[in-house]
Amino acid sequence: MKQTGFTLLEVLVALAIVAFMAVGVSQVIGQRLDIAGVAQSRELAQLCARELTARAQVEGLATGQGELNQGGERCYWRLEGASGLLGGRLTLYADAALSRSLGDWPIQAGVQP
């Protein structure tokens, strides 16, 4: 009498293939989530930089640091050298400790856009 069905080895190989595929899919999803988080941070940084650049040009912000609420999120900033003729440098941070930089932007103080 001939038995039909799969052998234990065939079942184990099939399960191993499914497991490898599941790991691959989870890694792709994780990478996409990381990319989305980075894109969101960059978008927030761009919004904050535009706001602070406009303030520096119109109001003449002085060298210092602070925080800005933009789009329901907070960004922390430090402005250095803004009082000089050459302008200054705006650095944005993701945290209050100013340890995770989101980027640097040049500032031309007192120059109308």
From TrEMBL:
Keyword Glycoprotein recorded: no
Record keywords: Cell inner membrane, Cell membrane, Membrane, Methylation, Transmembrane, Transmembrane helix
InterPro entries: N_methyl_site, T2SS_protein-GspI
Membrane topology: Single-pass membrane protein
Principal location: membrane
GO BP, one annotated term: protein secretion by the type II secretion system
Similarity section: Belongs to the GSP I family.
Name by which UniProt lists this protein: Type II secretion system protein I
